[in-house]
Specification:
There is one protein chain. The chain is of the alpha+beta class and 379 residues long. It contains eleven helices and eight strands. The strands form two sheets. A six-stranded antiparallel sheet has the order 1-3-2-8-7-6, sandwiched between helices. It has a two-stranded antiparallel sheet with strand order 4-5. Helix 2 (126-140) packs antiparallel against helix 11 (358-372).
């Protein structure tokens, strides 16, 4: 606050040059009082003006802050809407894919691409197509071959001879275990820690359901698998597999522990496997770990040396079950499963009637690599 005697204020003082010569003392006192009042009013007015300016400045700052907050809020709302829209779009795609009619996968002895969710059919690059055709041709010299490979995120894929039925051998073990875990264990009908004798099946010593499943998947033990089938086939297996749209009569035959089926059927069942493993239950994650630890995988071997955008192959997760045999008139070298990389999941099924040998193993491995190499065209 300024002093009363500042140069901007008119405050007469005693003996100042503003005194009127000859004015009486009383008149002079009155004059001083009036001047003092005027000065006080002036000071009050000035204070009001200053207060008004301060209030206006504060209001402007509040308004600017409010505008900035509004912009930030609007930005967050926009981002939330964009995220929600993206989530809905992804959910919609998954819903459409889960309801996809796998009968729309084309059949025939030529390489064909397809889409399970729309009419946008992918096109393979010439070099990738040639490599795939060459791998298939090499295998065809040893037996029948059928393949299906597709991206679960886009619903787009590639196929060759999808309906060629072959002896699936041990490749079916994972799909039967899917039935046991999804339909029986998750519903509380079966405990992984019980022995088969609990359910009227083979005693298999003291081995539990958990131990038999692990032996069937990781080490491909036949006795463990046959014991599981003998115990649980009558608990809803036929209804379960029929509900998934599997029409292969042999696959439903309870006398066939190792059914004959095709790549199309395999793809259907592995899509169901993917859905189950994504449920994130204790049993589903346990099964996921077993499938990632299989002792033999032609698919895993096929992509083992791959580098993807500088990412080492250990970043690729393969969950599979292979089948192989060459005895008693049964011939098969097969592999099928899920491949996870860069946030995308692919279903790969390679079903062949090639008698198992080093040559047939290499042939399936080459097909797996060729299929894996076309994945960028399926996005």
């Amino acid at each position: 606050m300024r002093n009363n005697a500042s140069r901007d204020e008119y405050v007469p003082q005693h003996s100042s040059r503003y005194e009127t010569k000859g004015t009486s003392s009383r008149g002079l006192a009155d004059a001083r009082i009036r001047v003092t009042k005027i000065a006080a009013i002036g000071m009050l007015t000035l204070a009001v003006i200053i207060l008004g300016i301060t209030a206006k400045t504060y209001a402007s700052e509040r308004m600017a802050h409010s505008d900035a907050s509004t912009v930030q809020t609007q930005k967050k709302v926009s981002e939330s809407k964009a995220t929600a829209s993206q989530t809905l779009s992804t959910a919609s795609l998954k819903t459409r894919l889960s309801k996809a009619d796998f009968n729309d996968i084309p059949s025939g002895d030529t390489v064909q691409t397809f889409s399970l969710v729309d009419d946008q059919i992918p096109a393979l690059e010439d070099e990738s197509l040639a490599a795939l055709q060459d791998a298939l041709s090499q295998a065809q010299e040893l037996g029948d071959v059928g393949v299906v490979f597709y991206d679960l995120s886009s619903g787009k894929g590639v196929t060759y001879n999808a309906d060629a039925e072959v002896y699936g051998a041990s490749s079916y073990k994972a799909l039967y275990v899917l039935y046991v875990c999804e339909s029986l264990v998750e519903t509380g009908q079966v405990s992984l820690d019980d022995t088969l004798g609990t359910y009227g099946g083979y005693s298999m010593g003291w081995l539990t359901v958990r131990e038999l499943i692990e032996a069937s998947i990781v080490n491909s033990d036949n006795d463990s698998f046959i014991a599981l089938r003998a115990t649980f086939d009558q608990d809803g297996y036929e209804d379960w597999i029929a509900a998934l749209g599997v029409e292969d009569e042999v696959a439903l035959d309870p006398m066939s522990d190792f059914p004959t089926y095709c790549a199309r059927t395999s793809a259907k069942l592995w899509r169901e496997m993917s859905g189950y493993l994504s449920r994130d239950t204790e049993t589903s994650q346990w099964l996921s770990g077993l499938l990632a630890s299989t002792a033999r995988s032609f698919i895993r071997d096929g992509i083992a040396d791959e580098q993807v955008d500088g990412i080492a192959d250990e970043q690729v997760l393969v969950r599979n079950k292979a089948g192989w045999i060459s005895e008693d008139g049964c011939y098969s070298t097969c592999d099928a499963g899920l491949i996870d990389i860069d946030g995308r999941t692919y279903v790969m099924s390679i079903m062949t009637s090639m008698p198992w040998s080093d040559q047939s193993s290499e042939a399936v491995t080459a097909i797996a690599k060729a299929l894996y190499d076309v994945r960028s065209s399926l996005a």
